Amino acid sequence: MIESLANQTALVTGAARGIGAAIAGHLAARGVAVVVADVDRSGETTADSLRSQGHRAAFIQTDVGDPGAVTAAVAFAESTFGGLDIVVSNAGLSARGTLENTTPELWDRIHATNLRGPFFLAQAAVPALTRRGGGNIVTITSLQSKISTPDLLAYGASKAGLVTLTRSLARLLAPKHIRVNAIHPGWVLSEGEVQIQAAAGLSPEDMKRRGTSFPLGRITLPEDIAQTVGFLVSERASQITGQILAVDGGIGLHR
Ligand SMILES: NC(=O)c1ccc[n+]([C@@H]2O[C@H](COP(=O)([O-])OP(=O)(O)OC[C@H]3O[C@@H](n4cnc5c(N)ncnc54)[C@H](O)[C@@H]3O)[C@@H](O)[C@H]2O)c1
Q: pLDDT class for 1, splitting at 50, 70, 90?
């Protein structure tokens, strides 16, 4: 039987769609009250849909690159649901940029979302998690943090920074009973990735077909990441902290 996570509250960034929406849906189905925090107002629809299924959910418009906004999102979680137990730093920007065409503005935007966001969200959330006697932070990093891709230079660097931040926070926060772990997704069939690949001429069916050549025979789905978040924040993972878990169907094995 899947362990219930009832009486807990989670704040999931970038939860309007894609991997974040799947994480929000999985946690909500396990009894967690979920704050959908997203820069895009369509997060309101995601929260509405969870509520219409009988779950507890609320939306707050949040740009994770703005420390004031993430502080407000943590306060919103506490005032709406009475506390905060789980933080998922999922919001990410995978904008393409080569050595030649990455502007300072693009570099800053990618790092503000992918690295500064999770740092200041952790800073804001730790007092709230501590008030509950502990909790969990999960970051969503990327295989790109350890491989070389010519048009993902700023993205890869930001995700590598997030890996180090995850491990540093894990050590620092262990005495407060806050576990901090990361998930490395491989290639995931999310709305954002479908849009990016459409621009390169690949349809979702093409992406799935490509997945059949991966070691485990299929592309990763948002739900695969969501299930792993559910495991990491559960009691079954109570001795796990500072780990970077690849959920990639084995594609990282031959890089
Ligand atoms: N899809 C993949 O193949 C893949 C692979 C590795 C890692 N990831 C990581 O997984 C995470 C989710 O990716 P996805 O594929 O679901 O993307 P997506 O584009 O489908 O969804 C991203 C969500 O984040 C939100 N967002 C973007 N910038 C934000 C900001 N500044 N503040 C708050 N919300 C913001 C967007 O509005 C959107 O709702 C990202 O961190 C991404 O880097 C994805």
A: low
CA distances from 80 to 47, 59, 165, 234 (A): 13, 10, 29, 23
**Which ranges of 6-147 does DSSP label H, i.e. alpha helix?**
18-29, 43-52, 67-81, 104-111, 117-131
The separation between the first and the last C-alpha atoms of the chain, rounded to the nearest angstrom, is: 36
140 is catalytic: no
| For range 109-137, the mean pLDDT | 98
CA of 1 from ligand 1 middle (Å) equals: 30
**pLDDT, mean of residues 185-214:** 96
Position 254 confidence tier, pLDDT thresholds 50, 70, 90: confident
Sequence spans of domains, the chain: 9-185+222-247, 188-219
For ligand 1, atom 20, name the residue with the nearest CA: 192
Do the beta carbons of residue 37 and residue 23 sit within 8 Å? no
Distance of CA 70 to the CA centre of its chain: 14
Residues 154 and 190: their CA atoms lie apart, in Å, by 21
From 3.40.50.720, 3.50.30.60, 3.40.640.10, 3.40.50.620, which CATH number describes the 9-185+222-247 domain?
3.40.50.720
Six token digits for residue 76? 């919103």
Out of 59, 81, 120, 155, the active site residue is 155
State whether residue 237 is helix, strand or coil. helix
Distance, in Å, from the CA atom of 64 to the CA atom of 75, rounded to the nearest integer, reads 14
Q: Which residues pair with 61 in a beta bridge?
A: 38
What pTM does this model have? Answer: 0.98
